[in-house]
Give the backbone structure.
Amino acid sequence: MKIDVGKVGHELQDSLVELVDLSLTAKQAHWNVHGPNFKSLHEQLDELTNDVRAAMDEVAERAITIGYAPDGRAATVAKASPLHDFPEGPVRDQDAITLIVERLMLVGDRLRERIDTLDQLDLVTQDLLIGVLAAIDKHRWMFAARQA
Ligand SMILES: [Fe+2]
């Protein structure tokens, strides 16, 4: 079966935009979090950043592999991302956890829908996004477990 580059590329592009935004958000939280749980949260947010960056690289490279040019430019991400803006300035540890969990839930829900769509389009891309979703789900669990 020949890959529908437009359709599969579109699913990858939407995933890329969300992951780039999530990686920037995780770093923003890493820098601005404060409170009694600062140190461990600061480190956990960097683990999230690293995993999301690895995932977005795989997603973008799958796109170009099938012949779809990934667009990870700041302006594109700002325009297309469904994630709400992360608040400006310092953020309390418990608030940071809530904000991150909300975003991990949103990204996870959207990946889950995309995985269903890809069932009929491209199983290799579907498999890639399943791996990404497993990582997002795991991070969501690890942040949610810290909610007061
Ligand atoms: Fe750092």
